[in-house]
Structures are given as C-alpha cells and as structure tokens.
Amino acid sequence: MADLMNTRSKFLLGGLLILGTASFLAAKSTAATAQFYLTPHELAERLAADDSFRENGMKVGGRVVPGSIVKSPGNKEVRFMMRDTMPSSTARFAVVYKGIIPDTFTDSVDVVVEGRLDAGNTFQATVLLAKCASRYENAPGKPGYGPGQQGGHPADVPKGPSPAPQT
Amino acid sequence: MILLGELSLWVSLLMAIWMTTVSYAGGATRRSELVMSGERATYATLFFVVMASIGLWTALFTHDFSLKFVASYTSSNLPKVYLFSAFWAGQSGSLLFWALILAVFTTIAVVANRTKNRDLMPWVTGTLGVILVFFIGTILFAANPYDRMEWVPADGRGLNPQLQNPGMAIHPPMLYLGWVGTSIPFAFAIGALVTRRLDTEWLAAIRRWSLISWFFLTIGLVLGMWWAYVELGWGGYWAWDPVENAPLTSWLCQTAFLHSIMIQEKRGMLRKWNVTLVVAAFLLSILGTFLTRSGVIESVHSFAQSPIGNYFSTFLILIFVATTILVMTRLKDMEAKAQLESMVSREAAFLYNNLVLVGIAFSVLWGTLFPIISEAVRGTKITVGPPFFNSVNVPLGLGLLALTGIGPLIAWRRASVENVRRQFMFPVAAGLVTGGILIALGMRAFYPIIAYILVGFVVGTISQEFFKGTRARMRMYAENVVLASLRLVGNNRRRYGGYIVHLGVAMIFAAFAGFAFKKEFDISLKTGETFAATDPFGHKWTFTSQGVSEYKRLNRYVTAVGLAVTRDGLPMQVLSSEKRQHVDSNDQPTFEPSTEVGLYETTMQDVYLVFSGMIGPDQAEMRLSFNPLVWWVWYGGMVMAIGGLIVMWPQAEKKRQGGYVTVLTPGSESADPVAAGMGAR
Fold first, then answer.
1. For the segment A58-78, what is each residue's pLDDT rounded down to a tens digit?
2. Other CB atoms closer than 10 Å to residue B152's CB: what's the count?
3. A59 φ, ψ to 5°?
4. I want to staple B222 with a disulfide (CB 3.0 to 4.6 A). Which of B126, B171, B476, B637 is the partner?
5. What CATH architecture does domain A36-134 belong to?
6. Could B351 and A26 be called an inter-chain contact, meaning their C-beta atoms sit closer than 8 Å?
7. Taking CB atoms and an 8 Å cut-off, how many pairs form between chains A and B?
8. B515: closest CA among B359, B636, B641?
C-alpha cells in the first residue's frame, strides 16, 4: 500500500511539475507580452494624465474617419485618422502604417492598430487589423440601406465626413 | 415556403420545450408514455427545424431581399454554391444551422439508443431538448434570420469576397458538426450523473460521438488554417486569433477525452476526470460559438450591442452551475476502481498526456479571454499576443509530442525494465539520427531541432508498431506483407487508426517547426525586371515580371500580375497574384478589392506571392515569401482525418468491442453488436 501511495504521490509530483511549468510560462509571458488595448478616447485620457504613457507599446481599437485614408502609390504605406467608435468622443489620432494593407481596410471600418505613439502624436503602427463591420453582421441603418437609396451600396455613398450614421 | 419556415421555427420551439418537459418528467416518474411522447417530440422538433431551414434556403435561392439576412449576405449575381453557404455566413443563420445539426444529431442519438439505454435516455433527450430550446429561443428572440427589412432593396450587398472560397463554404459546417457533436456526450454525461449509472455503459454509447466530433473539429481546424493561408494573404496559417483558439480548445479537450476514456475502459480509473472533460468540451463549444459569432474579444461595444451576448453568458453560467452541483452530489458514485500502479505504465503516460492537453487548452483559453478578464478585474483591457501563445505552447506542445511517442511503447499497469529497453531502442535511435542529420546539414535553431528529434522518435514508434504487428501476422497466418499490414489495421482499427492519427500529428509538428525558417521579401518590379532570391534550402530563384493584365469575370474585375519563375536556372510555372473588385448585377463595385494569393506549392516549400498594388501604369508592388513545409500541414491534417475514420468505422467496433467489453465488465451489454449504429457504443 505504501508502494501505491508512493506511485501516486510521484505522479502527482510530476503533474504539479507540468502544471507548474505551464503556469510559470503563462504568468511570465503574460507579463512580458501584455499590451494595453485602448480606445482613442481612453488613450487621450491617459495621455492627459501622464504624457510618458506614449512610450508604452499598445493596441488601439477605433474607427477610420471617412475620407481620411491616404495610400501611397503601390499600397505599401497608408495614413489615416482614427476616431473613437463612441460617437460622443472627439478623440482622434493620425496613424501611419507601413506594410501590406488588408483587403478589408476601408472608410469607416473598425480597425485595431498596434505600435507606438510618437512625439508628434502620430501613431506609428506596425500591425493594422481591419475588421469589416459587415463581415458577420450588418448593423441596421448602415449607409446604402436607407430608403431612397434603393439598391445602393456603401461604395455609392459619397466619401466625406457627413454620412456615417454608425451606431 | 418562407412564411412557413418562419412559422415552423416558432412551432419547433414549442416542440423542443415539450420534448424537454415530458422527457424529464418521464425520466423522473419512469412513466413510459411520457418518455415515448418525448421521443416523438424529438422527431417533430427535427421536422420543424428542417422546415425552418428549408425556408431560409428558399429565401436565399429565390433572392427574397425583403429578408434582412438575404439582403445582407447575398446578391442576385452570387454563384449558386455560395447562395447555399450564405446560410451560415451571418450570425443568425449560423445559429439556425447549429440548431439544425443538433436536431439531426439528437434524432440519430434517440433512434440509436432508445431501446438500449432505457434508464438513461429520457434524461439524454431532455438535456438535448434544453440545448435546442436555448438555440431556437436565441434565434427567435435575439438573432432571427427571418427579420424583415422595412423596405425591399433591388439587390443585396453580396457575400464578402473573402468568404467566396470553397474552403470557407465548408469550414464553418465542419466546425459546427464538431461543436454540436459535443452536445451528445454531454447529454449522456448528464443522464449518467442523474441516474447514477456511471459505469462504462454511457461511455460506450458516446465514444463514437466523441470521435465524430473530434473528426469534424480536426477537419474544420485544418480547413480554417488553409482558408487563412490562401485567402487572407498575410502569409501564415495560424495567428492565435480568438476564432482559431476557440475550436482549438474544444479539440484539445476532445483529444484528451479520447485518450482517458481508454483508461476508464481498461482500468476503471479517471471516472470523475472523464465526466469533467465531457462537460468542459461542451461548454467550450458553446463558448466558442459565442466568441466566433459575437466579436466580444475585439470590442466590448459589439458585446453590448448584440443581445445574443446575454443569452449565451446566462446559458453558460446555468449549465456550469447545474453540472457542478450534479457532479458534486455524485462524487461517491465515481470512485476509481483501480490505482495507478507504476510511473512507468501506459496509464501514467496517458495521464500526463491529458494534463498537457488540458494545460495547453487552459493556457490558450487564458490568453484568449485575457482582455475580458483584465477588463473585469482591473478596468483596463490588456491583450496578450502570439508571443504569449508561442512561449507557453511550444514547450508544452513538444512535451505532448514526446508523449505521443512514449505512450504506445510502454505496457499497461507496469512496464518492466526489459520492456522499456526493447521498445525504446529503435524509436530513440530514429529520433537521434534525425537530429544528427539536421545538425550536420547546418540547422542550428534550438526548438526546431528538438521538434525534429521528437518527430523522428514518434515516427520511429509508429513504424516499429506497424512492423512488429505485420511481422507477427506474416508468421502466424503466412500472409504476404500487403495483406498482413492491411488486416493488421482492419482487425485492430482503434489501435492502428490511432497510430495513423499520430503520424498526421507528427507531420503537422514537422511543418510547424519548419515554418520558423520562412523567408519574406517586399519587392517592386516593372515589366521585364527580375528579382533574385535564395530560399531556406539554398536554391536560387529568379522572378521576372511579365506585366499586369486586367479582365472581367462573372461577378468581378480582375487585375493580375504574372511572374516568370526559375529555380536554379530551370524555368518553373508562372506565378500570378490577383486583385479582385467584386461587382453587383448593375456593375457597381461591392466591397473593397480582395487579393488572390499566387501560390507555387511543393512538398518542401510554398512560394507565396501577394500583389499589393500598382505604382503608375507598370510597376507592381508585391510581397514574396518562401514558406517551408506548409504542404505537410494540409496532408498531415488529411492523414489525421483518415486515421480518425479508420478508428470510427462501424465494423471495427462490432468485432473488437464484443470481446473487449465482455472481458472488462462481464455480463454487461456486449450483445447486440449488429445494431451498433451511430452512437450505439
């Protein structure tokens, strides 16, 4: 019986070792790779409280300001303005991204950028993720679906800051 | 038909409620007429859910744009096949698809088991009814595909071009089949817990279902990787995105269960653990459906906006609490019948394999949910990225790979030193030789070398098992090599099918390790200009631009760049990547242009070309990469699926299980193997 217990405790020891290693790795790399994930509004608030916050690497999720996209020839670099998804917030940041631009990146989509905010308050993005708002769900009242725009498409809507009744 | 479909959905909700109520009542009072009524309600639910689904398909095929769902995901010039698959392109349709599969699975499970597991079945039927009520209810009250537009548009928005891909047409159904498949084992677990019949009976009934679920999840995951690789154009196949992690965690739980179930069958151990895994796999499936369909991870706002969030979280919590209470009150019924006898035994190897699988699942879940957890705890959303997942899961994954090789080599109960020495000699040598060759060839990266040593070890183990088995048959039955190896697999499908799955796993690990050597270039070429590069294997390549062409296809305009390719001076095929602008039936553009990747696939590496855009009339901007061993992911996945099919092929069950069950639990239901239909045991 003592022998059985022994095997059992040996196994438990091994198990603890595995789970311990796993948790240690998880805890260590959580700390090492964690990034703030903020909205433009929250970023503006944090900068107002402490300007050195800009030195952190971070992710910012917001929405492209319609008409602000400027792509370089060949689509290797893009500049745009990003605003908060909450209509009440006025926080805006300029973003520069170098690299392959995702197909879904377009006016008014929700984007997530990863990188740093430089001294001139331009966000230098190393990663640009565009989430096509309509990819899974179409919010009612999107441009192109209002009455009077029968058969219209978002692409028909004149680009500009005015129409974007996003909710 | 469409109106009928909508009405059917409401009727199916009533039927599912009836099915739940009378089945539970029948189970509690043991009145057979109630149980019978529950069974009939199951068939009725199936009928009405099928009608509701046909209704939606009718709407899609007849372009009834008065339905918001149809207008949102299709257009009148969409190819037929994508009209069919648009069913699961959006949230509400995919929930209906979930309900449809569940109704079909439930009916099959009820038909296959109603005469066999009489005590269990009312509870199983009732529990499946609860899940059906939840899904149909969520559809009707929060995400109804039959919702109308206030006005009828002339044409729909069309399907997102990235979803217009054959892989994406079948990837979601595969995942759903896998996810829904976890409901049946879960329902049986509840039945077994309630009736306290926690022996091998319920396990026998669900093993096939777990396999089916595992099989479809495997295919779904690999298809998802393939889709991301060929369609999204960022050059990889796995990005630790929440929508990838969610099915992975379910898959890991299922894999763990398929191993630990063997310990319970053979040794009567791990009974609580198995129930826990079955429940966890189900909860993770629901969570996964929710995560992939609500976008809660990316944005809390979408969570608040989408009412299905509340439905799903309430349901998850209810199920979690109910099962926890149920398990707690049944702990005594689940005492192990045997003890672990030795650390050097197959049980121990399987236990560690379970720990590692669950460890991986947990860390993936932790990383995926971290933004939500941190926001709840600290008020700030904090994310962890791919570095987190890699630094945790690479070591754990390698440990798992090692156990894949060790498990089959050691005996049950207690392995002797002699057994260990004899069994390990060849596989260990195979691993070391593999590592030696790679180091001699100049490979210096630590993790890949370890990975390849272990891959060599696993392949050594599998070859040794096949070799020994075949040789034994050849001697015993005087069969030739081919016949002997075929009969070996045919007569021991569970064991050798399992080894084939392991072979697929080894192939995929080899591919993952190879991907570390990927090389990537950003290039810009005018017509006639040439770019030269050396691939990770040392071959010299040139790429000469043949210029850009533009033309029109059925529902899109195409801009394509072509590169003439040579390898070591020999001409290869022309590599071409496209930008596609999709248009509707009035030639108006829909969506942003999408990119078609140019791909030259070989077993050693893929040459992968992404057309990014034009500078002026003639200069094409591109990203070019050499992606090593990607082929092995797809074919490794295929080998895993084939192995899975061999394991679950019904005949094998009939022959094998007969003897097996009688040996283990004499007098239990080993008879009637002929009726071993789906889910029979």
1. 888 888 888 888 888 777 789
2. 13
3. -110, 140
4. B637
5. Beta Barrel (2.40)
6. no
7. 178
8. B636
